[in-house]
Amino acid sequence: MRVGGPADVHELKDLMITKVAVGPMDNNAYLLRCRATDEQLLIDAANDAETLLGTIGADGIASVVTTHRHADHWQALAEVVAATGARTYAGRHDAGGIPVPTHVPLDDGDTVRVGRVRLTARHLVGHTPGSVVLVYDDPHGHPHVFTGDCLFPGGVGNTRKDPEAFASLIHDVETKIFEPLPDETWVYPGHGNDTTLGAERPHLPEWRARGW
């Protein structure tokens, strides 16, 4: 996956997931489309509104979720919302740091819908105070989780060498992601390549030991 390259498309029975890389920090944006209703939701209008709107297409989007308040994840948000009229969602404790008003502040366990598809927001503290990840528990297969900058291949998100922030994030990632979800769970991070919980799970003790 690279900026300017073709989108990745993951076709599930009820949901189509399109992944595109945008901007100077190689951010991933994810377009989710309910196959029954054609309603669409965007995760992270990170950058390059032209590319995002081209990916969205003429059908538009009903909503956009910003995973956290860091600026590289919302550079195109104002333009995308202006063009589509989408509802905005973000974690309650990060909404104040996003310069586009949040229509729906998210708390842990809240439901976000795209058409007939139900996603569950989980609040993870450490990378930012209000980061949220979205879990899609596919009734026809394994779960899928959109982790923003909380979980990547090889470790959790950056906690800026703050031991308390790291302890919080690794705890939340373990208890809210790794413990309830199976190894087959597909992980879509805010930057870089996808992974699975099974690929990362054996390394949790190593991450804890190194402190990042």
From TrEMBL:
SMART domains: Lactamase_B. Residues 26-191 form the Metallo-beta-lactamase domain. The keyword DNA damage does not apply. One of its GO terms (molecular function) is hydrolase activity. Pfam families: Lactamase_B. It comes from the Bacteria. The keyword Cytoplasm does not apply. Keywords: Hydrolase. This is Hydrolase.
